Amino acid sequence: MSQPTFSSPTPAPGSRAIAASALRRAGLIDQDAKMRDVSEKPGRKAGVKQSTRTRTHPHKPRAIDLVTGKDQHGAKSLNARIAAGDPATSRLVKSTAARGRRNAISLNGAPGSGKVIELWKEWVNRRWNKEAKFLNLERMHEDEFLKRHRLTCPSSPDGAREAQVVFKIASKLEPPVETISLAHNDLASGRIMSTLAHFMPKLANLSLEGNKLGGWKEIEYISGKRGRLEQLRELVLIGNPMRDLEIKNDRVQQYKSDIARRFPSLEMLDGEPVVRVAFDAPTPSASTSARHHTLLTSFAWNVEPSFIAGVDGTIVSNFFVRFFPLFDNQRGALLDAYAPDATFSFSANTGIPPRARIEGIHVSKDFPNQRKLEWAPWLSGGLGGSRNIGRLTGGMQQLTQSLHLGSEQAVKAMADLPSTKHDVTGSPEQFSVDAFPIRQGESTNLLVTVHGQFAELPSEGIRSFDRSFVLAIAPEGSRAKQNGWDVVILSDQLVVRAYSSYEAWRPGPIRVQAGDLLPSPGLQQALAPLPEPQRALMQDLILRTRLNLQFAEDCLKNNEWDLERALANYEQVKANLPGDAYLPQDAFLP
User: What is the pTM of this model?
Assistant: First the structure.
């Protein structure tokens, strides 16, 4: 595969050595690290030290030693020749001095070596989002700052040492970096990541999306014994040839298992949870049919409470406490809360969720007003109708009409929707909120999603809803700021659904099927000290067998934490187990 062409200029001969010296003095690369000079001959092996033995040639003193005064005998002779007006000697002195001055101030055409360090620090800070603990190293070869200052791109084939400098600077950022994105850098090799674990061993999230990593050996730079990211929780490899090839050859599960084995702490891969319920090694004691029919009784991870990170939670709560009462009672007053170029759309999902159908909510006497609800105002109202793209029948015209551009059009569309009543000051468990910063172009905005319920008026029937906002800090002098809004709405997407109980997002374990066992709070507390994935494996084995913690742990340990082997082992010995090997009924939820 041919290497991509980068716009960074070729460094002047010797300038890389000057850069290395400056960066070593600043402590940004290791003392034993050697920056490769592009002027080196191809045949020379990088990193091989040249002989340091001094070769004495009394009859051939070095010219540079004469100029610097190291050769005192030769210097006397040289001074005599200068005094005598020898033209060749004068040219030698002038050219040597000029070459020294050029090397002292030149580095790839950039400012002096002392300033290079500050340039790298400035560049890292430009790409650092302190609130989100996120370092954005995407599309470095397109970076105008690097081009303007003629700095070698860290993602270029010769940029490994620059990458080391960047990672070392990043390791000193406060708060510590949790997320790094190296997406869309045309990386064909993982060498740029070889020092990542050294400088940031606690890195939690890494994106390599949209690169050219072609084989598993490239992943070894961050998963091998020397460079493993031991605490990595999320990895994104979408858009790399190695992943695309596995999917093309129908080896998706094998790909996921291989990645999970390399990163024991991984929780998310390519935006999907990593389920650690079994190991891949087949065993004689577990038949193929038994493995195929083994079912989960609960998900590997529990439902967690609302997630708000990288932003003061009071900003989010103050926004909702003001927004929803206005939406319920005075939608026209929301005009100031939307940016002039904001977008708004809504869609209606008329299907009854399976959970609600099983519980009979929509025919229950406890919800007498559900039958009074009608979908027509949501499907055709709002000055453009529902934007459920999977069910649009009006073609491009309806697609464009259902997207409302600008604050005035957004508020007019909302005014044409049915009246509602959100109980935001009542029971907090009725709502689930996630909020965190996102990068959009050069701006950092806030993505807020809320799941909840409202009463539709006048029927008083209950509907569920999901609403996603993209918010920005209200600029000084804006209508939003003048009217007391801390944030301004850039995007608003509303989904209205048939009602399903807020039990769906109650924190705790989730049943896969009705009737499956769930652990009690006491059992969850007993399992809490265990690290993942052992905790998930323990919980799953206990829910399937009712074994107590000691017997469940022994069973998994003796079978190398392979859940399928442990289950097969349990089936073989369960007739001989004592009664106290099992947990009592109150260890499980009813």
Answer: 0.44
